[in-house]
Amino acid sequence: MTSINLTYSILLTTFLFTGCKNIHWEQWDPVNINPNLSKDSTFALMDTQKELATFPEQHTTLKRSSMVSILIGEKHSRQDSLNSTYNTCTAYFSSSDTLHIDIGVHGLFGGTGFEISYHNKRFNTKGYQYSDVVYQEKTDKPQHWIIHQQLTLNQPEYKAGDSLYGYIDFKAIERNAIGDTIIYNGKGKFRAKMVNTRFNN
Question: What's the pTM?
Answer without folding.
Answer: 0.79
